[in-house]
Amino acid sequence: DPRSPPTVGRVLRARSQAVNLLHSVRAELIQHLAEPDTAAGLARKLGTSRQRVRYHLRELERGGLVERVGERRSGNFVETLFVAASRAFIVSPATLKRLVHSCGSAM
Questions:
Q1: How many helices and strands in the chain, by DSSP H and E?
Q2: What is the pLDDT of residues 26-53, one digit of tens each?
Q3: Where is pLDDT greater, at 83 or 91?
Q4: Residue 16: strand, helix, or coil
């Protein structure tokens, strides 16, 4: 059901998930995905191309931060509906420590 609410909160333990969420475009997409939407709908809201949004949605989906929740037909196209996998994401203390350490060593 495309209207199924996402879980209330999810703890991110993988560094890659936290990095994915910290990307500015991806963080903005997550904010807009409290309700199901398509790449085209998100592109209109963000004022960017559908292709750019689709790329970032694939990365978020790969990281388990967004989920496919259905499809809808729009003209001759079938659009995929996405929703945030959770209403809130919390970076675990251990993951945060690894992020801070990796940022410090990169400087």
A1: 5, 4
A2: 999 999 999 999 999 999 999 999 999 9
A3: 83
A4: helix
Alpha carbon separation from 3 to 30, 81, 84 (Å, rounded): 16, 10, 12
Q: Which residue has the tokens 């939407």?
A: 37
Give the span between the Cα atoms of 32 and 25, in whole angstroms. 11
Backbone phi and psi for residue 41, each to the nearest 5 degrees, phi listed first: -65, -40
Query: For residue 99, how many other CB atoms are within 10 A of its CB?
Result: 15
In terms of Cα–Cα distance, which of 78, 87, 86, 37 is closest to 57? 37
The residue type of 59 is E
3-class SS at 8?
A: coil
> Tokens 């997409």 belong to which residue?
29
Q: Which two tokens stand for residue 63?
A: 């990281």
